[in-house]
Structure formats: C-alpha cells, structure tokens
Amino acid sequence: MQFIRSLIYYFGSYGLLIPHSILCVISGIFLPLKTRYKYFLLWNAFNIWWLSITCGIKLQVTGRENIPDESFILLSNHQSPWETIYFYWVFRPICATLKKELLGIPFFGWALKLLDPIAIDRNKKGRALQQVLEQGKEKLESNISVLIFPEGTRVAPGVEKKFSAGGVQLAISSGRKILPVAHNAGICCPAHKIIKHSGTIKVVIGTPIDPAGRNPKEVIREIETWIRQAT
C-alpha cells in the first residue's frame, strides 16, 4: 500500500513540476530575485501538503520563535530531499549551497538556477569554500539567508559524518548568526528510495548562535553535538 501511495505522490509531484518549472523559467526572466521566491516555491508548499495527503507524512515543528529577523546561516543535518524542499519554503528567502550538477537537470534545474543558489564543484574543495564565503556574504548582505548542510551530502538516519566548519566561517566573516536545525526526515523520506513511509517528520529549530570571537571548530562541534542529541 505504501508503494502505491508513493507512486501517487510522485505522479502529482512530478506531473506539476514540469509545467511549473516552465512557467518559472519564463516569468523569472522578468521578475526580481526576491519576487521569484514567492512564486517559484509554491511547488515546495504543494509537495509538503501532497505528502501528507498521499503518504500520511505529517509535520511537527518546534522553535519557530527562534528564527532571527535578519538574514542568518542555517546549518542542519541532511537525510533526504525533503528538508531542502521544506527549508526553501519556510525560511525564504534562503539561498542553498548545492552541487552544480543539479542546475543542469531539465526544467527543474533551469528554474532552480534562477533562484541564484551557490553552486559548487565538490571536486574543488578549496574553491568551493571560497565560493561559499564570497557569495554567501553577498547573499546575507542582501538579507537572503544561506542554507548549508555541513555533512556535505545526505546521510542515513543513525549514520554519523563529521561536520565541516565552512558555515561557521561564513557566519564569522559576515557577522551573522547561525540557526541550527535538526530533523528526522530520513525516516519517512529515505534518500535514494522510492517508497515514502507514513509518520511524523519532526523539525527542531534551535537557539541562534553568535560565533563572533570563537574558534570555528569549537562552534561546529557544539552544533554537531546539539543536532545529534536533537535527532
């Protein structure tokens, strides 16, 4: 039954994605960046709702009051495609740091490119960090938050991968705070799997952290420990 429900989800999600992406590409030529967020991410909102209808995946969020009024760096664990969809919608405007290959995907990638993400080449780690620091600071100064997954890739629930300190370095150089977020989305929406599992995705938004004057490695260890405990 979950397999059938998952197929219905994909039918609705991807069936809407292509026409929506085409409209985004056409309209995006004329719309300023922050206005694009308003319309482009309606597909994200639809997906969150559609998952609850088709697959019985509910959502529980705590800590909304912790979201800063000014732009920030969001650091979170990465378990599935779900959190990127959700974060883009709830914390908008927010710029994601992602692998550049995603921008080449027909329709979806073209529309995503118009949101001006920080697209990095994972094979060039030194240049990738420089991109995050330079482009991330520009986004933050434009009051657009930056989303970074310090694990660098999706990691299955229960598996641990060391966090990188690039997001903390960006926070220190830009003078912005870090918003730590933890979730268990990989239980309901496992990466690289077709079947979605019914249940409740829990998202915990932590207290903003000011890393000014602190050692980046010390700060990222604190964030990693908090996220491990929260998940």
Describe the structure.
With 231 residues, this protein is α/β, with parallel strands linked by helices. It has a single domain, classed as Glycerol-3-phosphate (1)-acyltransferase, CATH 3.40.1130. The protein is 47% helix and 16% strand. It has helices at 2-28, 33-40, 42-55, 82-90, 108-113, 125-141, 166-174, 185-188, 216-230, and strands spanning 57-62, 73-76, 94-99, 118-120, 145-148, 178-183, 199-205. A 7-stranded mixed β-sheet has the order 1-7-6-2-5-3-4, sandwiched between helices. The longest helix is centred in the first third of the chain and has 27 residues, at 2-28. 36% of the residues are buried. The mean pLDDT is 94.
From the spread of the alpha carbons, the general shape counts as: globular
**SSE arrangement, N to C:** HHHEEHEHEHEHEHEH
The CATH class turns out to be Alpha Beta
Relative strand content = 15-25%
Q: Strand order of the main beta sheet, please?
A: 1-7-6-2-5-3-4
Gross CATH architecture? 3-Layer(aba) Sandwich
How many domains make up the coordinates? Answer: 1
Main beta sheet, described?
A: 7 strands, mixed
Helix content bin: 40-55%
Distance between the termini: 28 Å
Rg, Cα atoms, Å? 17 Å
Ranges where pLDDT stays below 50 over 5 or more residues in a row are none
